[in-house]
Amino acid sequence: MTMRLAAAALLLLWGCATPSATTQRATAPRTRPVFLEDDWEGALREAKEGRRPIFVEAWAPWCQSCRSLRATVLTSPALGEWADRFVWLTMNTDAESSLPFLQRYPVDTWPTLWVLEPEHGAVITRSLGAVSVPQLLGLLAQAERTFQQGHGGTEVLARADGLALQGRHAEAAQGYQQALAGLAAEDARRAGTVVSWLKSLSASGSAEECMRVAGRELPGLARADDRTRLLYVGMGCALDADTEETRAMRERFAEEALRDLDAPEEALSPLQRSSLFELSCEAYEMAGDTEGLRGMTERWWTFLEAQARHARDAEERAALDSHRVMAAALRNKPDEALPLLERSARELPGDYNPPARLATLYAMAGRHEEALASSERALALAPRIARGTVLAGHARILLAQGARARAERLLTEALGELDATPGMSREHLQRRALEHALARVRASSPAPQ
Predict the structure, then answer these.
(1) DSSP 112
(2) Which pLDDT score, from 0 to 100, does residue 361 have?
(3) 89 strand-pairing partners
C-alpha cells in the first residue's frame, strides 16, 4: 500500500529492511514457516516433490506494509501448524533475481501474497496488501481447501486474477464483481476479493466507482481488520477527486476509521491501526480541519511512541518508522523522530532504510549537509536495482541545496543503468520513482530565455 499524505512526495521511498540473501531451508521440525528467499525455481521443485502448494510473499525493501507484515505476522507462532503444509517463498521485487518471477506474476501492490499450485504455478489465491494473523490463517485454510478439492467454484476468481495480471483491469473488475457474488459472507476470500476489485477499478480509471463499491461493501464486513483494508483503498480512491459526493464519502470513511480505532488490540495489527490514523489525518487535511488534524496527529504520535517502547526487537520497532516520519512531518516536529530513527540505524547497520529515513528528517529540519551525508550512507548500502527510490530522495536534497545539474545527472545515469538491466520492466516501481524525480528536477529549472 502507498503513502498518500501531503508528505508523500518526500516520503515515497522508505519501508522495509533488506533480508539476508542466503536461501534458507528447514533442517528440523518447524514451529513456524522457514522461507526460501528469491528462489522461485527452487520453491517450484520442492513443491512438485512434496505435492504442496506454494505460499509467496512479494515484497519490496521500501515497503512499510511489507516490513510490518514480516516483523509481526509472518513470524507468528500461529503459523506453526501450517509450516509443513506449504512451501514458503519470499520474493524481493527489487532484486534482479526476481525479474523472471515478476514477468510471470506482475506486482503493483506491496505486499502481494500468493498461493500457487505446484505443478505449473497456477494462481490459487492472490491477496493485495498487508494482512493480520487471523486474515492470513483464513487465507491459508481457504487456499488449502481449494487446492485439495480443485478449483471448483473459484474459476471466475482465478480468471479475474489472470486478467489483472495481464493489466486488463476493466475486465478484471467485472470478473471480481461476478466472483464476489458467488462467495459466502463468511468466506475468507471475500474482503480480499473486494480489495482486488477496488484496485482494478482504480487502475482502469474508475476511482469514483471504486469509492462507491467500498462504501457499499463495508457494512457487510464484521471484522475490523477486513474493514481497514477496504477503508484504506476506498479513501485513496475518494481522494482522487473533489466533488460533493467524494467529500461526503471521505467524511464517512473517516468516521468508520475513528470507530475502528477503538477496536480491541487483538483485532488489528499495529500497521493496520496506524493506517487508520493515517487515513483519519488525510480526511482532516483534505477537509481543511487544522484543529482536527493537529489532535489526530498527536494521537498517532502517541501510538507510534508506545509501539516503539513495546517492540520485541529492532525489526519490529523499525516496522513503523516510515509512519513516524509521516507523523513527524504533519506535526512539523522532525527533531522528535530523530532519536528513534537513529536507534534503528544503530541496530540495523546493514539496512539502507534507517539512514534514508534520517535523511528525510534532516531535510525537513533544514539540516541539508546532514541529510546529504545520511543519504550517501543509504546509497552505499542499497542494492543497485533498489537505488532508484533512494536516489529520488537524494535528488530532492541536492535540489534544496541548489545543485540542480548534479541531481539531474545522477537520475539520468541511474535510469540508463536500469534500462540496461535485462528483464527490467519500464513499469517497475524503481524506474517510475526515478522518472518522477527527474521530471520534478527538470520542472524546477528556469524556463529558457
Answers:
(1) E
(2) 97
(3) 36, 56
Q: Using alpha carbons only, give the angle 357, 363, 364 rounded to the nearest 5 degrees.
A: 95
Q: Indicate the angle between helix axes 224-238 and 190-203, nearest 10 degrees.
A: 10
Secondary structure element (H or E) that encloses residue 402, with its range: none
> What is the chain's mean pLDDT, rounded?
89
H or E element: which one contains 126? strand 123-128
Q: Quickly list DSSP for 73-102.
A: TTT-GGGGGGTTTSEEEEEETTSGGGHHHH
Q: What is the dihedral of CA 260, 266, 272, 278, to 10 degrees?
A: 50
Task: Report the pLDDT value the prediction gives residue 179, as an integer from 0 to 100.
Answer: 93
Coil, strand or helix at 278: helix
| Helix segments in 311-386, DSSP class H | 314-318, 321-331, 334-347, 353-364, 368-381
1 DSSP 8-state letter: -
C-alpha grid cell for residue 175?
Answer: 470478473
Each residue's pLDDT tens digit, 248-296 = 999 999 999 999 999 999 999 999 999 999 999 999 999 999 999 999 9
The dihedral region occupied by 307, where left means phi > 0, alpha psi between -120 and 50, and beta the remainder, is: alpha
Q: What 3-state DSSP class applies to 433?
A: helix
Q: Could you count the other beta carbons within 10 Å of the beta carbon of residue 350? A: 8
- Specify the pLDDT at position 424: 81
In angstroms, the CA 438 to CA 399 distance is 11
pTM, full prediction: 0.86
Contact between 152 and 142 under an 8 Å Cβ cutoff? The reply is no
For residue 378, what is its C-alpha cell?
Answer: 543509504
Taking each helix axis from N to C terminus, what angle separates 207-217 and 190-203, rounded to the nearest 10 degrees? 160
Chain centroid to CA 36: how far? 21
| CA-based max dimension of the chain | 72
Q: How far apart are CA 85 and CA 140, in angstroms?
A: 10
Q: Is 32 helix (H, G, I), strand (E, B) or coil?
A: coil
**For residue 153, what is the DSSP state?**
T
Cell numbers of 306, please? 508506545
Based on its alpha-carbon atoms, the radius of gyration of the chain, rounded to whole angstroms, reads 21
User: Please, what sign has the CA dihedral across residues 229, 215, 281, 240?
Assistant: positive
Is the alpha carbon torsion for 250, 252, 255, 261 positive or negative? negative
Kindly give the parts of the chain with pLDDT less than 70.
1-30, 151-154, 445-449
Burial (0-12, 13-18, 19+ Cβ within 10 Å), 176:
buried
